[in-house]
Amino acid sequence: MRNIIFSLFVILSFTLLGQQTQEFRQDFTIPSEAFGDDRKISVYLPSDYYNYPDQKYTLTYVLDGQSDLFMDLVVKTIDYNSHMYNFIPTIVVGVHAKERGWEFSQPEEGDEKHDYKGGRAPELQEHFKKEIFPFMDSAFERSLDFRTIIGHSSGGQFVLNTLFGENSDLFDAYIGISPALRPGENKILEMANARFQNNSRLNKFLYCSTGTVGGGEEIFDVAINQLDSLLKTHPNNGLLWQRTRFTDFDHFMVVGPSVNEAMVFLTRAFRPDEMTILKMANKKVDLGVQLDRFYKNRQEEYGFSEIPLAGQIHFWSLALMRKENYQAATELYSWGIKKHPNNYTLRKSKGKLYLKIDQEENAEKLFREALEVLNSIKDKVPEDFYTEQLDYINKKLESLK
């Protein structure tokens, strides 16, 4: 019966989604066999979601979705930087808790003696796997097969328990903000050590942060340091591991900067940004060759990578030109054109670069290619844009005769 109800709910959700117009927060109630009751999730769409119907998004699941203040901080931080091309575009899903302490913790000996059912992390993991994920995959078809989880405090403990437990494949990226870990009082380090003793690789992204202010934070900081030491003794663990300590920050001050930094590191793990492009450009190897190696490694090891948009590639090329690294800029434009063969701007901009460095023959070739692309997209762009660009290209070609 539950499965029938769930199927009907998904169908109803499609109807509701079709009726909604540009709503950036959508709340859903999902019947849960895992918990034996109804559960709520809040879906936060990026602010430009309706402007780019062909854009696909990763999914970022955030524990404590019932806290509007917490979710507002997380969502706005991610949305702003995604809009500015700093983060991989993602849909944020707030997962509501009813009794967060119990739902985020593993069962402990003695729980059965209490009226409540403590240690419900296994039920929450089951809820994700069999109920939340199928719903999101069905209701939001523009999602990519890459899942991130963010948890703060007890939520951070759930993040690490899931990563080092039997359900590590639930997510691809794990972000624990000030995880509520106490050295010697939990089994997370034992679980992690057991996995790595068997030469097991976890091809995942992991970020953990702590502060230094407050008794609890001092304890959590020690536990994360122990985890860091353990990972260093097993360097072939497969984790893309980032650990940050925010000096003079308490348990709650760390949330904002942690979300921002974690998403920066996560993006850089699977897609270059301006900083990594500039570093690559200082090497003597062709920039396009370096980028191909980067993407091949990420796909083979982690099963995911994100090709930057043409606009981002153009932006990075301009940064290289400001550094007067024209060779790297031409290599980046060439790589970008291979990834976006139908993009007009990249060809036009590369032609302008060739003019700047007095390579007129190459410039003419690129402008002719740009003209072909412009004519091929004539019906897909505004008429005034087409007319303006056609005039621009023809003038450039005429000057090169």
Task: Please sum up the structure shown.
The chain is of the alpha/beta class and 401 residues long.
Describe, in plain words, how this protein is organized in 3D.
The chain is of the alpha/beta class and 401 residues long. It folds into 2 domains: 2-270, Alpha/Beta hydrolase fold, catalytic domain (Rossmann fold, 3-Layer(aba) Sandwich), CATH 3.40.50.1820; 274-399, Serine Threonine Protein Phosphatase 5, Tetratricopeptide repeat. 53% of the residues lie in helices and 14% in strands. The chain contains 15 helices and 8 strands. The chain has an 8-stranded mixed sheet, sandwiched between helices. Helix 2 (68-83) links the parallel strand 3 and strand 4 (90-95). Helix 2 packs parallel to helix 8 (255-270), helix 13 (344-356) runs antiparallel to helix 14 and helix 14 packs antiparallel against helix 15. The longest helix has 19 residues, at 121-139. It starts with a helix and ends with a helix.
Which helices and strands appear, and what pairs or packs with what?
Blueprint: H1 2-19, E1 25-32, E2 37-44, E3 57-63, H2 68-83, E4 90-95, H3 100-103, H4 121-139, E5 143-152, H5 154-164, E6 173-177, H6 188-197, E7 205-211, H7 215-233, E8 240-246, H8 255-270, H9 274-281, H10 287-302, H11 310-322, H12 326-339, H13 344-356, H14 360-376, H15 383-399
Parallel strand pairs: 3-4, 3-5, 5-6, 6-7, 7-8
Antiparallel strand pairs: 1-2, 2-4
